[in-house]
Amino acid sequence: QYEGKGVAYFIKNPEQYRNQHVVIAGGGDSALDWSIFLSDVAASVTLVHRRNEFRGALDSVEKVQELKNQGKIRLITPGEVVGLEGEGALSGVRLQAEQGLITLDCDAFIPLFGLAPKLGPIAHWGLEIEKNAIKVDNSLDYQTNIPGVYAIGDVNTYPGKLKLILCGFHEATLMCQSAYKRIYPERRYVMKYTTVGGVEGFDGTKKEAPKAVIKSID
Ligand SMILES: Cc1cc2nc3c(=O)[nH]c(=O)nc-3n(C[C@H](O)[C@H](O)[C@H](O)COP(=O)(O)OP(=O)(O)OC[C@H]3O[C@@H](n4cnc5c(N)ncnc54)[C@H](O)[C@@H]3O)c2cc1C
Question: CATH number of 120-200: 1.20.1250.20, 3.50.50.60, 3.10.450.50, 3.40.50.2300?
């Protein structure tokens, strides 16, 4: 009802909160980091968490404590957002706090509770699933039990799997090579290093490392 009209689940452009009254809910790194960042941008930042303890980088917890002491962040703990208010757009959040039910007037509410990974409809595709992850052939190209369907990143599993982006990149590299051969069986694939051949930027320009030169050194 209020998504895009005051409620946002992630922050695309922090500038949109300039001079706004912002309520952030959550107790992890995202909630802490954005409270710190927006305390310099927004007219006010209120951080609401259902517990008194935060689970995040020590540095961030200490920074929030400091900003709270300076009056730059208002902390409401334990507190839980139980309702939203506003005609058309958000104008406030209802909180269950220690002193009872209260309403906070605000322009923006940003719940940052993290994600619960769920496979959703993919779970019914007939893929082999183990412990909520998709089994893949890691000895070859990260294909699933359905030929032509690949799974890479945190969503997959295989013996020795580590949920690291580092591993995700490796899996993506091998998967792309395999998918290319499937899509263009007649074409010869020539692997090129981006450090040598450059890479197309998202803006359409080509990014290239400086070319090597042949030059004597006196
Ligand atoms: C605190 C922390 C620190 C980390 N530090 C490191 C590190 O130092 N080095 C390292 O290598 N790795 C690190 N990792 C692990 C790394 O972040 C993950 O391995 C990586 O993000 C996985 O990438 P992914 O694309 O597979 O999944 P994700 O990053 O989880 O991306 C999946 C995306 O899919 C979206 N999504 C989910 N369901 C749906 C759906 N039904 N429809 C549409 N979209 C959907 C999600 O919103 C999400 O954006 C860290 C992780 C954490 C939590």
Answer: 3.50.50.60
Domain boundaries defined on the chain: 14-111, 120-200
Cα 159–chain centre separation: 26
88-128 per-position pLDDT tens digit:
999 999 999 999 999 999 999 999 998 777 899 999 999 99
> Does the fold of domain 120-200 match that of domain 14-111?
yes
Distance from the alpha carbon of residue 11 to the mean position of ligand 1, in angstroms: 17
Can you tell me the distance from the alpha carbon of 138 to that of 109, in angstroms, rounded to the nearest whole number? Answer: 42
Ligand 1 binding pocket includes 198 (Cβ within 6 Å): no
Q: Write down the CATH number for the domain with range 14-111.
A: 3.50.50.60
Is 142 within 8 Å of 127 (Cβ atoms)?
Answer: no
Confidence at 36, pLDDT banded by 50, 70, 90:
very high
Q: Which string of DSSP letters, residue by residue, matches 175-195?
A: HHHHHHHHH-TTSPP----HH
ipTM exceeding cut-off 0.85 for this assembly: yes
Query: Residue 94 C-alpha to ligand 1 middle, in angstroms?
Result: 31
pLDDT digits (tens, 9 = 90+) for 180-206: 999 999 999 888 888 888 888 888 899
| 120 pocket-lining for ligand 1 (C-beta < 6 Å) | yes
CB of 147 within 6 A of ligand 1: the answer is no
